[in-house]
Amino acid sequence: MEYFPEGIHIRKGSNHVVRGVTSAAICEDAITTDRKAKTGHTIAGCTLTGHTTPGPGHTCYGLDGNPDRCGIDKAIQVNGGGAAITGNTLDTIGQPVAVVAGTHVISDNHTAGDPTDRNVCQAYTIAGQATTTLTGNTIDHCKFGIRVVDDAAVEANDNIITNGYVSAFQVTGSGTSPLLKGAGNRLGNDGSSTESECQRGALVVRDNPNARIDFGGGDFAGAPSSGASRAGATPSARAA
Question: What pLDDT does residue 232 have?
């Protein structure tokens, strides 16, 4: 599937399955769920890659909407409904998964950026009032690992984030109660380059007093946990 502005767009209905899609020439968004879409969708086993030059007569778009390399915008854009996004390979893409609404599970996906360009991969951005669980994903050489924006609520468990550039986890935006919670995540650096060292393991913006993070397994109701998390020089340093 190549050079479609929106390759597959789920506009309405429930229980749609998108499986085994391959694209190395993503024009804008390879797979999209609409804000009016319902629940039960599955996006699985797809291989979507970017950072490629468009072929003759074709145009791809970057994060700023201007012509750029293929796959610099988004691979999967989730505007609503409910989807299970699992077992996909989403490499060298500007935003592998961007969620703005709905309730979703994102699990066991592999995402990697370009070791020579820290701006290629911004990994998973959960925004709006979305509620999303991210479990067992691997994220390598990305500017951000998992980013929570606006009033989104995210539970992140057992993810492996290595060789980040800015922050492995980030809670930001002007929402009334953005929340990131989770446990069992592993953050690491393979030591191959000083350009592959995360500035921050977890960042909560200072201009929103209601932004909250709990890596000890607290709940969405606001009850804090007594657990602890830790990060180390290798991915084997596992959070408690």
Answer: 40
